[in-house]
Amino acid sequence: MAAGTGTRLRPLTDDRPKGMVEVNGRPIVERQIRHFLDIGVDEIVIVTGHKAERFAPLAKTYGRLTLLPNPLYETHNNIYSMYLAREYLGASYVSEADVLMHRNYLLQRPETSLLFGGYRRGFAKEWILRFGPDGRIHRVDVQGGEGVILAGLSYWTAPDARVVRERLEALVEGEGYENLFWDDVYMSCLDRVSVYLREIDPGDWSEVDTLDDLKDAEARDRARV
Fold first, then answer.
1. Is the pLDDT of residue 206 over 70?
2. Domain 7-224 has what CATH class?
3. Total Cβ atoms within 10 A of residue 66
4. Single pTM value for the model
């Protein structure tokens, strides 16, 4: 999902999508593309919006990239991006384009649906994953403090994807969905799917929302080389 305007990263996003902002010489989303191709993913769909044309060189370089435009990116949250890509949901990953993966922690053939997350503390507001002893996620809380937080990446088996897709379609066909996030969709049906935590190291990923986040991501990335 790469349709957002990235207002908090201006002026860097004045002429490019947030996912095309470079960290140590390479766009954030390009790092993801390379990781996905390395595990054998055969098709990557990028839902575009703001400055969508900037993704064209990546499609030319890597192939197997489908660019799917979201005409409502300025007025709707990313629930609509997922709605447009819903036919691709199933035995597939869903990733946010502003997440820098400092290493490749993707799995080739997950056996269950997964939410990727890692322990962090001292944050003001994040998606905190609540799970049982077996790792099955039963709730997601949006609050501050400490805990295992969502890392902007999930995997969905075909059976679970059908449940989530039905919920997604029901929400979008109703009213007042414009301010919802993609995460709100699956959070509302966790009792009907079997999704488990895939815990990664806190230093494995950076979510780049602001210029300060970008500086931190660059430092963390250099430290891992």
1. yes
2. alpha beta
3. 12
4. 0.92
